[in-house]
Amino acid sequence: MNRRLPPLNALKAFEAAARHGNFSAAASALYVTHGAISRQIQQLEQWLGVELFERHGRRVRLSVAGQSYLPAIQAALDSIAAATEKLTARKQGRRLNINVTPTLAMHWLLPRLTRFQLRYPGVELRLATSDASINNQNADFDIAIRRGKDHWHGFVSHAFLTEREIPVCSPALLQRLPIRQPADLAAHTLLHAETRPVAWARWLAAAGVPALQSAADQHFDHYYLALQAAVDGLGVTLGALPVIESELASGKLVAPLTGPEITVRGYSWAVPQALVGDELVTAFCRWLEEEGSQH
């Protein structure tokens, strides 16, 4: 079938300019000049017979036609990139790029990865950690793992791990300041994570002490820092089960109260549409579900 297709370089220039919001940034991203980007986009507009950008001096923004055209072009370029990666990976030995939240990577995924690698010894795993939202414009991975059950546009996703929260602290701190009931937390410093801003308020309400005033509060931008602060005896944090099961098993952390255990957002894997059906990607996602089902 004869396909009526515009020039590929012009499509790449259009997508880059739309993604970055200006021609100069697109030129830097594609290692060409500003003039080259401008000429390629003009060529594409002439080929299509419509203006893709509204130009206001040096500023540009997508026209209505450009906004309509962009998602399909991004999806097509993503599919070409994924197919190319898949083909070249076969020649070089297969590689999986995993993008995962830092806390889950350190406390849950890394201790289990040996089991996956024993099952698939020829696979190279590359892990990157991030809490950033995922979308079609930054999908430089095969599989992402994020909290929640969001339906990310351009991705297929599935929940694989349920999470429950309960107060935890170091054994030394508990020996010095016992916690026999939720009200005893008033004598302690509560450790908060900015990535879980309502965690303590939610737990205290469920425990029947919503107005509890702690002795002090400390805030951290990442949850894994709050966990480490608890291990070091700085205060009490809400431990996520089963993510911190190794810290509980080793005695680095203890859970002084039996409850309540609050079920919160768990974790989901997300795969770009272009990689749905890929055998190795599917195998890793199924392995995640197997590991998650053990809890």
TrEMBL record:
Annotated SUPFAM superfamilies: Periplasmic binding protein-like II, Winged helix' DNA-binding domain
Keyword Cytoplasm: no
First and last residue of the signal peptide: none
Keywords, ordered alphabetically: DNA-binding, Transcription, Transcription regulation
Gene Ontology terms for molecular function: DNA-binding transcription factor activity; sequence-specific DNA binding
CDD domains: PBP2_GcdR_TrpI_HvrB_AmpR_like
Pfam families tied to this protein: HTH_1, LysR_substrate
GO aspect biological process, one term: DNA-templated transcription
InterPro entries, alphabetized: LysR-type_TF_proteobact-type, LysR_HTH_N, LysR_subst-bd, WH-like_DNA-bd_sf, WH_DNA-bd_sf
Family annotation (Gene3D superfamilies): Periplasmic binding protein-like II (3.40.190.10), Winged helix-like DNA-binding domain superfamily/Winged helix DNA-binding domain (1.10.10.10)
Domain HTH lysR-type: 6-63
PANTHER family per record: HTH-TYPE TRANSCRIPTIONAL REGULATOR (PTHR30537), HTH-TYPE TRANSCRIPTIONAL REGULATOR TRPI (PTHR30537:SF74)
Family: Belongs to the LysR transcriptional regulatory family.
Protein name as it appears in the record: Transcriptional regulator GcvA
Organism: Aquitalea aquatica
